[in-house]
């Protein structure tokens, strides 16, 4: 093949990927805004009248939005996921209220969470904590408000006053919920790991190879508050086999395949010592340093870092292996929105090209530019380098000891998008802020 032909094919692939990503972004944003409006109407009419019905109906509105992103993982990149662990942990996973304590190493670990919860038919019932500013982001942020996510100020003195009430709202759900916590506080990078281990050394804490030193204040509060309300904690370790391409959202859009491996360990809440903060601190640090892994035929103690180290050597976790299948529901949903939103959008482009109407051209061009900017920005925010500055800046001693400054969530492609200022919205934003206070 001649160099010129190779160059032309490369340009064609780039242009094709750009057009596909732009089209997907436009469909996602317009459908999301429509779903946000329906969520607002649903909240105003049902939330204070029949909260259980509101949550069941809202589940589907959230599902219609989130599975468009999930379809990229399942069908665009043809990626998959395999569960590992003891038989009881795998069998009971998703059948009860639980807290998830998960490692935070990869750019797309939130997508894997969505993949698993969708398989368990509880995608919209997966909850997490996010910084307050994210509620102002259209589509995802507004959707999180109506999904009753927990928004925090990132100031423990303020957050501890409202966190209990927010948790009570979540445990009210009649269907099983998962509360996802990234106790490391931010995604793993070599720079953050180095700073974290320097901090651990000064505090005489365990030196970890594949994790950051966990933060304890938020976890301690949640464990104490939910002691008799949530029966189990799941320790989850996520790994991807080493490949030439890193598991990032941009590589997913390019069509590269990634196979996630997830280890589950089911821990009864009754085994978690909640009498004192000191006991909880020790328990959480021990969880990262050593974890009791219970299988059908063996019982052993294993260092979690050793678990991950073995995984990177063998590309598998111990225990029973259960591959998860892709969902046709996410594909059907994406095709539906591609027709409902995509066809009118393509027709509007056709009118621009054939009529040359100035007003229409201006509107379509402005939308296209805004959507491309949004797409570029969201993909950029999924990168680990855009995580918090945890461990790289000096903090007060209270925060350094584990103040709860959780910044991450299942929809992390909007991560830190309002680091310096809050995004201004329209009337729906203002109404949503009031709704969030009520929630």
List the helices and strands and how they pair.
Layout: H1 3-46, H2 51-76, E1 80-85, H3 87-92, E2 98-102, H4 109-119, E3 126-131, H5 140-146, E4 150-152, H6 156-171, E5 178-181, H7 190-202, H8 217-225, E6 232-239, H9 249-253, E7 259-268, H10 277-289, E8 291-294, E9 299-302, H11 304-314, E10 320-324, H12 328-340, H13 342-355, H14 358-381, H15 397-400, H16 427-438
Parallel strand pairs: 1-7, 2-5, 2-6, 3-4, 3-5
Antiparallel strand pairs: 1-10, 6-7, 8-9
Plain-language structure description:
It comes from Caerostris extrusa. The protein is of the alpha/beta class. Helices cover 52% and strands 13% of the residues. The chain has 16 helices and ten strands. The strands form two sheets. Strands 4-3-5-2-6-7-1-10 form an eight-stranded mixed beta sheet, sandwiched between helices. It is globular, with a radius of gyration of 22 Å. The C terminus is likely disordered.
Task: Please name the defining characteristics of this protein.
transferase, alpha/beta, membrane, transmembrane helix, 8-stranded mixed β-sheet, 1-acyl-sn-glycerol-3-phosphate acyltransferase delta, single chain, 439 residues, 1-acylglycerol-3-phosphate O-acyltransferase activity, 16 helices, two-stranded antiparallel sheet, disordered C terminus
């Amino acid at each position: 093949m001649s160099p010129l032909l190779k160059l032309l094919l490369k340009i064609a692939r780039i242009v094709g990927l750009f057009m596909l990503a732009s089209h997907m972004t436009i469909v996602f944003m317009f459908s999301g805004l429509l779903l946000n409006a329906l969520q607002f109407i649903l909240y105003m009419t049902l939330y204070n009248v029949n909260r259980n019905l509101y949550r069941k109906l809202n589940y589907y509105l959230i599902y219609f939005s989130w599975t468009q992103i999930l379809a990229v993982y399942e069908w665009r990149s043809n990626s998959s996921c395999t569960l590992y662990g003891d038989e009881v942990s795998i069998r009971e996973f998703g059948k009860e209220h639980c807290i998830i304590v998960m490692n935070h190493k990869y750019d797309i670990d939130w997508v894997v969470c969505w993949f698993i919860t969708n398989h368990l038919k509880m995608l919209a019932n997966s909850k997490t904590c996010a910084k307050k500013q994210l509620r102002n982001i259209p589509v995802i942020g507004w959707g999180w408000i109506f999904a009753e996510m927990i928004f925090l100020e990132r100031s423990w003195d303020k957050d501890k006053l409202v966190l209990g009430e927010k948790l009570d709202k979540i445990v009210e759900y009649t269907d099983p919920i998962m509360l996802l916590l990234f106790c490391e506080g931010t995604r793993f990078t070599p720079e953050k790991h180095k700073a974290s281990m320097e901090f651990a050394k000064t505090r005489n804490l365990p030196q970890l190879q594949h994790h950051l030193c966990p933060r304890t204040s938020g976890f301690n509060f949640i464990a104490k508050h939910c002691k008799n309300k949530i029966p189990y904690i799941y320790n989850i370790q996520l790994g991807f086999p080493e490949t030439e391409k890193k598991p990032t959202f941009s590589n997913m859009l390019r069509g590269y395949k990634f196979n996630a491996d997830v280890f589950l360990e089911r821990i009864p809440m009754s085994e978690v010592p909640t009498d004192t903060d000191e006991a909880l601190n020790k328990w959480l640090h021990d969880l990262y340093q050593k974890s009791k892994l219970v299988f059908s035929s063996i019982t052993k103690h294993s260092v979690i870092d050793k678990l991950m180290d073995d995984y990177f050597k063998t590309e598998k976790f111990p225990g029973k292996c259960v591959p998860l299948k892709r969902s046709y529901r996410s594909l059907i949903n994406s095709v539906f929105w591609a027709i409902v939103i995509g066809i009118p959008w393509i027709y509007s482009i056709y009118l621009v090209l054939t009529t040359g109407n100035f007003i229409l051209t201006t509107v379509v061009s402005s939308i296209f530019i805004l959507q491309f900017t949004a797409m570029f920005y969201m993909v950029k925010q999924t990168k680990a380098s855009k995580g918090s500055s945890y461990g790289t800046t000096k903090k007060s001693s209270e925060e350094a000891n584990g103040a709860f400054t959780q910044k991450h969530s299942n929809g992390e492609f909007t991560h830190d998008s309002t680091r310096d200022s809050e995004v201004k919205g329209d009337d729906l934003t203002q109404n949503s802020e009031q709704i969030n206070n009520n929630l």
